[in-house]
Structures are given as structure tokens and as C-alpha cells.
Amino acid sequence: MFLRKIELKNFRNYDSLKLDFNKNINIFIGNNAQGKTNILESIYFLSVTKSHRCNKDNYLIKNDCIFSKVVGEVENDGRKNTYEIIINSEGKRVSINNNVFKRISDYLSKINVVMFCPDDLEIIKGTPSDRRKFLNIEIGQISNEYVLYLAKYNKVLKTRNEYLKTENEKDFNYLDILTDELIDLNTKIYKYRKEFINDLNNYIVDIYKIISGKEDIKIKYDSLIDDEDNMINELHDKYDRVRESELNQKTTLIGVHRDDFSIYIDGEMINNYGSQGQHRMAILCLKLAEIEIYKNKYNINPIILLDDIFSELDKKKKANIIKYIDGDMQIFITSTDLNSISKRITKNADIFYIDDGKVEGEKDGTR
Q1: Helix or strand run (H / E) with residue 184
Q2: CATH number at residue 216
Q3: Same structural domain, 159 and 287
Q4: Where does the chain show beta strands of DSSP type E?
Q5: Are residues 148 and 288 located together in one domain of the fold?
Q6: 194 Cβ partners below 8 Å, 6+ apart?
Q7: Residue 128: in which H helix or E strand, if any?
Q8: How many angstroms separate the CA atoms of 301 and 326, rounded?
Q9: What is the pLDDT of residues 48-80, one digit of tens each?
């Protein structure tokens, strides 16, 4: 899988931009705040229909413009498809080969990307909501069925919360119906998340050993479910126990919308207590494990986005990253300094220089 070309219209600081890409390595060089990350953001957005930097789509529209458009041509197994996302005041429209999809979930999981960026530290240091967002986006790239379950869950959850907030006397039969729906979706979403966490654990230990020389790293999914063989009955019992509290607090107190995960190194949870070095190491290994899942479980070579991470890594860690991503994967790299990237990478790369939303190419690699 590789992105052959991209076209931006009124996206961030770009009025209009068209770029053709090397199927191997593409490097964007420039000072900060010139538009390097905006290009990687557009590729990420084309894949998952969300920005990795903001929660509101309208922030992606260039100032004083009424719409933004991202179009990309992706080649996969010899087939070329054109993907397009348009944002305007009416919302977001997605299409593939001019076929417009009513549901975002039908568009997702077609373009697979793994993003490395400084903000990844929030996966560890941030809130449980940040970690759930990470799970939802990454699993959503693998399965659009998961996206459907998640959308249905959020819809039922909203309805249930609104009903709990009403001052009228409660119809407990109706509340039970909503609870049953929520329980069914809880189990489906839990299975996807738990499988993804298990897959990460299958690879992260070996990766951590290669990079750090140590072996003791583990990701633990924190959920209300204890008995996986009896999930539905267990959830019914737990919802029954909290019913009175939910009626008093007027909100749904348990469910996958409150789940979390933690990373342990040497048996200690590092989310709140680990050092900056441990956090960076854990995130690096987490993302490399994702790549291994794509390659080995799904036979997919994802597109790799490396946003200004080489300046933060020592020589050994840079070499280990390249070891894992060197091969049949398309790579996009941003940096302020070309010298921070090894010549082994740059010799076959397309290099683009970015200055105030203007892009110039220095040389072409293998297309």
C-alpha cells in the first residue's frame, strides 16, 4: 500500500498543493510552523477522517475559507483508488472513486497508517479518554465493524443518559431494554479491544528487548469485565448493583466508555509514575508493535508517518526504528534538520523543502 499523490485545497496553511510521492521514503524539511506537519496531518486525515492534533474538523479549514478538501490516490495490490474528504459548514463528506458514503464507517479501514509524533506521549501521560481514543482509532483502521459497534454504543449510551436525567417516574422495563442493548455492545467492543491489546503484547516484549535490552513490559486492559466466559451475566449483575447510584447521579456509571489501559515496565505502572525516558521508550515500542500486527496478522504494509521524532532519539533508537520500518512500507518523515536523518534513509528518498506553505523538491528517489 502506498500513497501515489495527494492534493490539498484550503487545508491548514495551504491554498492549493499537489504532490507526487516516492513509494519508499519521502522527507519534508523546514523550520517549525512552515507546514511540514500539516502534510502528514492531511495523510492521516485521509486515512482515519480525523486529525491527530485537534478534535474539530473546522480547524483544518484555512482561515477565511469556507471549505477544505483532501484528495489522495492510493495504490494497493496493483489497484489504484482515489479517496476524497471535503469539510464545510454542513459537515464532512467522504468518497472513494467519486462514490459518496453516507456512513464514515464504510469509508474507514481502507488506508492504514501508523503515526509517530511528539504528542504520542499523551497516550501514556494523558487521560483515560486519550487512551480510549487511541484504541478506537487504531482498531477502527483494522475493522469498520468495530466503528459501527462503537457508534451504536454511543447512541444507546446517550439515550440512556438522557433518560436517566428525566424527572419523570422511570419505566424500568424501558431502562432494562436500553441496558440490554448496552451490555450486548459492551461485549462486542470489549472483545475487539482485548484482542488488540493481546496482539500488542505478543510483539512488544521482543521489540522492547531489542531496543532496551530488557524484557519486562506489558500492556494491561483495565475493564469492568472480570469473567470473559460469562460476560453478559456479569454485566447484568454489575448494572443491577449500580442502578440506584445511576438513578441518583443521572448517568451511566459503568461500561466500555470508562475503560482504560496501562503500561507496566518491570512490574510498575508507568502511566503516572514513569520517567520521560520510559514513556518515550514505551510509546516507541507500542507503535512498532502496531506495525508488526499489520504486517504479520493482516498482511498489510501500513503507511508510516514520522513527525519530527528523529531529533528526540539517540543514534541507537533511530537505528532500531529503521530496522523495523525498513522494507516494503512507504514512509513520510518531517524534520527541521536533514542531517539528523541518516544517509541510509536519505539516499533513496524524495526530499521536499517547506517554507511558509510553499513546497520545493530537491531530488527524486525510486517511484
Answers
A1: helix 172-212
A2: 1.20.1050.90
A3: yes
A4: 2-11, 14-20, 25-29, 67-76, 79-88, 91-96, 99-101, 113-116, 217-222, 260-265, 268-269, 303-307, 331-335, 349-355, 358-363
A5: yes
A6: 221, 223, 228
A7: helix 128-142
A8: 11
A9: 999 999 989 999 999 999 999 999 999 998 899
Residue given cell 530488557 in the structure block: 214
Please name the residue ranges forming H helices in 16-73. Answer: 36-48
Q: Which three cell numbers stand for residue 279?
A: 514513556
Q: Judge contact between 203 and 293, C-beta under 8 A.
A: yes
In the numeric block, the cell 541507537 is attached to 316
Q: How far apart are CA 151 and CA 149, in angstroms?
A: 6
Q: Which of 271, 299, 327 marks a domain boundary?
A: 299
- How many structural domains comprise the chain? 2
The pLDDT, as a whole number, for residue 217 is: 95
Per residue in 75-128, pLDDT tens? 998 899 999 999 999 999 999 999 999 999 999 999 999 999 989 999 999 999
The answer for 273, left when phi > 0, alpha when psi is -120 to 50, beta otherwise, is: alpha
CATH number, domain containing residue 352: 3.40.50.300
* Same domain (yes/no): 192, 329: no
Contact 324, 290 (CB under 8 A): no
Supply 98's cell numbers. 467519486
**Cell numbers that stand for 301 in this block:** 504494509
Q: How far apart are CA 237 and CA 231, in angstroms?
A: 10
Q: What is the pTM of this model?
A: 0.93
Question: Is the distance from CB of 286 to CB of 219 less than 8 angstroms?
Answer: yes
> Which residue range is the domain that position 40 belongs to?
1-112+301-367
Each residue of 304-339: pLDDT tens digit? 999 988 776 777 777 777 777 777 899 999 999 998
Question: What are the strands, taking DSSP E only, across 12-109?
Answer: 14-20, 25-29, 67-76, 79-88, 91-96, 99-101
